[in-house]
Protein backbone atom coordinates (compact mmCIF):
# COMPACT_ATOMS: atom_id res chain seq x y z
CA UNK A 1 0.00 0.00 0.00
CA UNK A 2 1.18 3.52 -0.71
CA UNK A 3 1.36 6.14 2.02
CA UNK A 4 -1.96 6.58 3.80
CA UNK A 5 -3.13 9.95 5.16
CA UNK A 6 -2.44 8.90 8.76
CA UNK A 7 0.08 6.97 10.83
CA UNK A 8 0.35 3.19 10.71
CA UNK A 9 -0.59 2.97 14.40
CA UNK A 10 -3.94 4.57 13.51
CA UNK A 11 -4.68 1.65 11.19
CA UNK A 12 -3.47 -0.92 13.70
CA UNK A 13 -5.56 0.76 16.38
CA UNK A 14 -8.64 0.59 14.17
CA UNK A 15 -8.37 -3.20 14.22
CA UNK A 16 -8.85 -3.24 18.01
CA UNK A 17 -11.75 -0.79 18.34
CA UNK A 18 -14.63 -3.29 18.18
CA UNK A 19 -15.46 -3.58 21.92
CA UNK A 20 -15.23 0.18 22.37
CA UNK A 21 -17.44 0.83 19.33
CA UNK A 22 -20.08 -1.63 20.52
CA UNK A 23 -20.08 -0.03 23.98
CA UNK A 24 -20.31 3.47 22.48
CA UNK A 25 -23.25 2.47 20.28
CA UNK A 26 -25.03 0.82 23.21
CA UNK A 27 -24.64 4.00 25.25
CA UNK A 28 -25.39 6.66 22.64
CA UNK A 29 -27.55 5.22 19.83
CA UNK A 30 -31.33 4.94 19.81
CA UNK A 31 -32.38 1.30 19.96
CA UNK A 32 -34.28 0.13 16.90
CA UNK A 33 -33.10 3.08 14.80
CA UNK A 34 -30.54 2.03 12.13
CA UNK A 35 -29.78 5.64 11.15
CA UNK A 36 -28.98 6.46 14.76
CA UNK A 37 -26.62 3.47 15.00
CA UNK A 38 -24.77 4.51 11.83
CA UNK A 39 -24.59 8.14 12.94
CA UNK A 40 -23.20 7.03 16.29
CA UNK A 41 -20.49 4.93 14.65
CA UNK A 42 -19.63 7.92 12.45
CA UNK A 43 -19.36 10.12 15.52
CA UNK A 44 -17.06 7.60 17.19
CA UNK A 45 -14.84 7.54 14.07
CA UNK A 46 -14.57 11.32 14.03
CA UNK A 47 -14.28 12.02 17.75
CA UNK A 48 -12.70 8.92 19.32
CA UNK A 49 -10.66 6.88 16.82
CA UNK A 50 -10.58 6.51 13.05
CA UNK A 51 -12.53 3.49 11.75
CA UNK A 52 -12.42 1.64 8.44
CA UNK A 53 -16.18 1.54 7.76
CA UNK A 54 -17.36 2.59 4.31
CA UNK A 55 -18.60 5.74 6.08
CA UNK A 56 -21.15 8.43 5.23
CA UNK A 57 -19.36 9.81 2.15
CA UNK A 58 -18.96 6.59 0.17
CA UNK A 59 -22.07 4.96 1.62
CA UNK A 60 -24.45 6.81 -0.73
CA UNK A 61 -22.53 5.44 -3.74
CA UNK A 62 -23.72 1.99 -2.68
CA UNK A 63 -27.13 3.03 -1.38
CA UNK A 64 -28.04 4.48 -4.77
CA UNK A 65 -27.87 0.94 -6.18
CA UNK A 66 -31.13 0.13 -4.38
CA UNK A 67 -33.07 1.02 -7.51
CA UNK A 68 -31.21 -1.65 -9.48
CA UNK A 69 -31.93 -4.47 -7.04
CA UNK A 70 -35.03 -6.67 -6.93
CA UNK A 71 -37.38 -6.81 -3.97
CA UNK A 72 -36.04 -9.20 -1.36
CA UNK A 73 -32.47 -8.77 -2.60
CA UNK A 74 -29.79 -11.12 -1.35
CA UNK A 75 -26.55 -9.40 -0.37
CA UNK A 76 -23.13 -10.91 0.35
CA UNK A 77 -20.51 -8.90 2.21
CA UNK A 78 -16.86 -9.81 2.71
CA UNK A 79 -15.47 -7.92 5.69
CA UNK A 80 -18.03 -6.95 8.34
CA UNK A 81 -15.74 -4.92 10.63
CA UNK A 82 -18.21 -3.19 13.02
CA UNK A 83 -21.39 -4.03 11.09
CA UNK A 84 -21.74 -0.57 9.55
CA UNK A 85 -22.28 -1.53 5.92
CA UNK A 86 -24.41 -4.58 6.75
CA UNK A 87 -26.72 -2.33 8.77
CA UNK A 88 -26.73 0.21 5.95
CA UNK A 89 -27.71 -2.46 3.40
CA UNK A 90 -30.39 -4.04 5.59
CA UNK A 91 -31.99 -0.69 6.33
CA UNK A 92 -31.75 0.77 2.81
CA UNK A 93 -32.78 -2.07 0.53
CA UNK A 94 -36.21 -2.92 1.97
CA UNK A 95 -37.79 -5.27 4.48
CA UNK A 96 -37.30 -8.40 2.40
CA UNK A 97 -33.55 -7.97 2.05
CA UNK A 98 -31.16 -10.51 3.55
CA UNK A 99 -27.48 -9.85 4.23
CA UNK A 100 -24.83 -12.55 4.64
CA UNK A 101 -21.67 -10.99 6.05
CA UNK A 102 -18.39 -12.89 6.41
CA UNK A 103 -15.86 -11.82 9.04
CA UNK A 104 -12.94 -13.81 10.52
CA UNK A 105 -12.26 -11.72 13.65
CA UNK A 106 -13.90 -12.79 16.94
CA UNK A 107 -14.25 -9.32 18.41
CA UNK A 108 -15.55 -7.92 15.13
CA UNK A 109 -18.31 -10.54 14.89
CA UNK A 110 -19.40 -9.86 18.48
CA UNK A 111 -19.45 -6.12 17.79
CA UNK A 112 -21.39 -6.58 14.54
CA UNK A 113 -24.04 -8.75 16.13
CA UNK A 114 -24.50 -6.32 19.00
CA UNK A 115 -24.77 -3.33 16.67
CA UNK A 116 -27.21 -5.12 14.34
CA UNK A 117 -29.38 -6.04 17.32
CA UNK A 118 -29.21 -2.43 18.52
CA UNK A 119 -30.38 -1.31 15.07
CA UNK A 120 -33.28 -3.75 15.17
CA UNK A 121 -31.99 -5.61 12.12
CA UNK A 122 -30.61 -8.85 13.55
CA UNK A 123 -33.28 -10.84 11.70
CA UNK A 124 -32.06 -9.55 8.32
CA UNK A 125 -28.31 -10.04 8.79
CA UNK A 126 -26.33 -13.25 9.24
CA UNK A 127 -22.73 -12.82 10.36
CA UNK A 128 -20.57 -15.83 9.50
CA UNK A 129 -17.47 -16.12 11.67
CA UNK A 130 -14.81 -17.53 9.34
CA UNK A 131 -12.10 -16.51 6.87
CA UNK A 132 -13.66 -15.40 3.58
CA UNK A 133 -12.23 -18.14 1.36
CA UNK A 134 -13.25 -20.84 3.84
CA UNK A 135 -16.78 -19.47 4.26
CA UNK A 136 -17.36 -18.98 0.53
CA UNK A 137 -16.58 -22.63 -0.09
CA UNK A 138 -19.48 -23.63 2.17
CA UNK A 139 -22.21 -21.32 0.85
CA UNK A 140 -25.10 -22.86 -1.05
CA UNK A 141 -24.93 -22.09 -4.77
CA UNK A 142 -27.76 -19.56 -4.66
CA UNK A 143 -26.80 -16.34 -6.47
CA UNK A 144 -26.59 -13.00 -4.70
CA UNK A 145 -27.92 -9.76 -6.16
CA UNK A 146 -25.16 -7.63 -4.63
CA UNK A 147 -21.66 -8.56 -3.47
CA UNK A 148 -19.70 -6.04 -1.40
CA UNK A 149 -15.92 -6.50 -1.13
CA UNK A 150 -14.43 -4.66 1.83
CA UNK A 151 -11.98 -7.08 3.44
CA UNK A 152 -8.25 -7.56 2.79
CA UNK A 153 -7.54 -5.97 -0.57
CA UNK A 154 -5.17 -8.70 -1.75
CA UNK A 155 -8.06 -11.18 -1.49
CA UNK A 156 -10.46 -9.27 -3.74
CA UNK A 157 -9.54 -10.99 -7.00
CA UNK A 158 -9.20 -14.55 -5.71
CA UNK A 159 -12.38 -14.36 -3.64
CA UNK A 160 -14.36 -12.91 -6.54
CA UNK A 161 -13.12 -15.76 -8.73
CA UNK A 162 -14.25 -18.21 -6.05
CA UNK A 163 -17.64 -16.48 -5.90
CA UNK A 164 -17.94 -16.91 -9.67
CA UNK A 165 -16.90 -20.57 -9.63
CA UNK A 166 -19.36 -21.39 -6.84
CA UNK A 167 -22.33 -20.05 -8.81
CA UNK A 168 -22.93 -17.16 -6.39
CA UNK A 169 -23.49 -14.62 -9.19
CA UNK A 170 -26.13 -14.39 -11.93
CA UNK A 171 -26.44 -12.03 -14.89
CA UNK A 172 -27.16 -8.60 -13.44
CA UNK A 173 -25.54 -9.27 -10.07
CA UNK A 174 -23.63 -6.20 -8.90
CA UNK A 175 -20.15 -6.45 -7.36
CA UNK A 176 -19.00 -3.39 -5.41
CA UNK A 177 -15.36 -3.13 -4.34
CA UNK A 178 -14.49 -0.48 -1.76
CA UNK A 179 -11.02 1.07 -1.38
CA UNK A 180 -9.82 0.77 -4.96
CA UNK A 181 -8.11 4.15 -5.01
CA UNK A 182 -4.45 4.25 -6.03
CA UNK A 183 -3.26 4.25 -2.43
CA UNK A 184 -4.53 0.67 -2.02
CA UNK A 185 -2.69 -0.67 -5.09
CA UNK A 186 -5.84 -2.11 -6.72
CA UNK A 187 -4.28 -2.86 -10.11
CA UNK A 188 -4.64 -6.66 -10.01
CA UNK A 189 -8.32 -6.53 -9.08
CA UNK A 190 -9.22 -3.72 -11.50
CA UNK A 191 -7.40 -5.38 -14.39
CA UNK A 192 -9.34 -8.55 -13.72
CA UNK A 193 -12.89 -7.14 -13.54
CA UNK A 194 -12.28 -4.76 -16.44
CA UNK A 195 -10.44 -7.25 -18.65
CA UNK A 196 -12.00 -10.67 -18.07
CA UNK A 197 -15.02 -9.89 -20.27
CA UNK A 198 -17.61 -10.83 -17.67
CA UNK A 199 -18.36 -7.40 -16.17
CA UNK A 200 -19.50 -3.94 -17.14
CA UNK A 201 -17.57 -1.63 -14.83
CA UNK A 202 -18.06 1.84 -13.45
CA UNK A 203 -15.36 3.65 -11.46
CA UNK A 204 -16.55 6.15 -8.87
CA UNK A 205 -14.13 8.61 -7.31
CA UNK A 206 -14.48 9.10 -3.55
CA UNK A 207 -12.41 9.71 -0.42
CA UNK A 208 -10.99 7.37 2.20
CA UNK A 209 -13.48 7.05 5.01
CA UNK A 210 -13.48 9.99 7.44
CA UNK A 211 -10.67 11.77 5.54
CA UNK A 212 -10.20 13.98 2.49
CA UNK A 213 -7.68 11.58 0.92
CA UNK A 214 -8.57 10.26 -2.56
CA UNK A 215 -10.14 6.83 -2.88
CA UNK A 216 -12.55 5.09 -5.26
CA UNK A 217 -15.28 2.46 -5.50
CA UNK A 218 -15.56 0.04 -8.43
CA UNK A 219 -19.08 -1.05 -9.41
CA UNK A 220 -19.11 -4.09 -11.68
CA UNK A 221 -22.26 -5.65 -13.17
CA UNK A 222 -21.91 -9.35 -13.95
CA UNK A 223 -22.76 -10.30 -17.52
CA UNK A 224 -22.67 -14.04 -16.94
Structural topology:
Blueprint: H1 8-14, H2 18-28, H3 34-47, H4 55-63, E1 74-78, H5 84-92, E2 98-103, H6 106-118, E3 125-129, H7 132-136, E4 146-149, H8 156-165, E5 174-177, H9 187-195, E6 199-207, E7 214-222
Parallel strand pairs: 1-2, 1-4, 2-3, 4-5
Antiparallel strand pairs: 5-7, 6-7
Can you walk through the features of this model?
There is one protein chain. This protein has 224 residues and is of the alpha/beta class. The protein has a single domain, classed as Vaccinia Virus protein VP39 (Rossmann fold, 3-Layer(aba) Sandwich). It has helices at 8-14, 18-28, 34-47, 55-63, 84-92, 106-118, 132-136, 156-165, 187-195; strands at residues 74-78, 98-103, 125-129, 146-149, 174-177, 199-207, 214-222. A 7-stranded mixed sheet has the order 3-2-1-4-5-7-6, sandwiched between helices. Strand 6 (199-207) and strand 7 (214-222) form a beta hairpin. Helix 2 (18-28) crosses helix 3. The radius of gyration is 16 Å and the shape is globular.
**Termini distance?**
32 Å
Low-confidence stretches: none
CATH topology: Rossmann fold
Shape descriptor: globular
CATH homolog superfamily: Vaccinia Virus protein VP39
How many separate helices? 9
Give the spatial strand order of the biggest sheet: 3-2-1-4-5-7-6
The assigned CATH architecture is: 3-Layer(aba) Sandwich
Q: Into which percent range does the helicity of residues fall?
A: 25-40%
Largest sheet: 7 strands, mixed
Tell me, rounded to a whole number, the average pLDDT. 94
CATH class bucket: Alpha Beta
* Series of secondary-structure elements, N-terminal to C-terminal: HHHHEHEHEHEHEHEE
User: What Rg, in angstroms, do the CA atoms define?
Assistant: 16 Å
Strand content: 15-25%
Per DSSP E runs of 2 or more residues, the count of β-strands stands at 7
Amino acid sequence: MADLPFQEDTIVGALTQHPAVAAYVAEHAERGNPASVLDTIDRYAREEHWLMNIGPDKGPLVQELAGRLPAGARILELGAYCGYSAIMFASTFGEGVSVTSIEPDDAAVACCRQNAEMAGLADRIEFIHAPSTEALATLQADPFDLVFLDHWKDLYKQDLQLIESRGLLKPGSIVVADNVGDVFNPTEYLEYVRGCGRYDCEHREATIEYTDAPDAVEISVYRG
